[in-house]
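Training component of the fellowship. As part of building independent skills, the fellow (R.M.) carried out the full modelling exercise for a liganded target. The chosen ligand was pyridoxal-5'-phosphate. The inputs are recorded below so that the supervisory panel can assess the work.
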Amino acid sequence: MASRNPADVTLIAVSKTHEAGRIAPLIAAGHRDFGENRVQEAAAKWPALKAAAPDLRLHLIGPLQSNKAADAIALFDVIHSVDRPRIAEALAAEMARQDRRPSCFVQVNTGREAQKAGVDPSEADGFIAACRGQWSLPVVGLMCIPPADEQAAIHFAFLADLARRNGLTQLSMGMSADYETAVRFGATHVRVGSALFGERNAT
Ligand SMILES: *Cc1c(COP(=O)(O)O)cnc(C)c1O
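Fellow's submitted model of the complex:
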């Protein structure tokens, strides 16, 4: 496996459930990429933190409801969970209205799990094309969350191949348990929470 240049992999510190007081020290230490999975929680925590470090990048990594699209576009710099026409359309409308264009990842449900967000793999090529064509979204790459009980590597390899086929260069994949595998398979963004902040309390 080819070795990777660390500069090509962005570590997203997933700060969901953690208070601003736990996040501020990382910002002070120079970390700039943070991930949240809920728009409302992020809207409560992040405006003040962002004001202190205007160059930081906030990543939305959780599923998005179309009635939260306006808040999401206002607050986030990268959206990792574009997965259906309704959301793509709502995001496109808000980007035009707010004149803000956060980079987008299309989330793919590589394990075809009923409870998980993401476009079905069989519909991914068409959906990616529609996001770029019909809705003119700034799609930069693909995102996946492999099933907990399967080999993550198979899903990472599949996502990398799907991205290559669609001319997309960025891959948001890998969490605390499997980020090393994800990097071997070409991740450009790893989303790491508990390995950085410790275990989360159940919410
Ligand atoms: C919570 C979360 C993570 C981080 O998970 P850890 O196992 O704590 O590293 C990554 N991606 C998504 C989409 C998440 O919701």
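The panel noted the following from the submitted structure. The pocket of pyridoxal-5'-phosphate is lined by residues 14, 16, 37, 61-62, 145, 175-177, 191-195 (CB under 6 Å). The beta strands are 10-14, 33-36, 57-60, 78-82, 103-107, 139-143, 170-172, 189-192.
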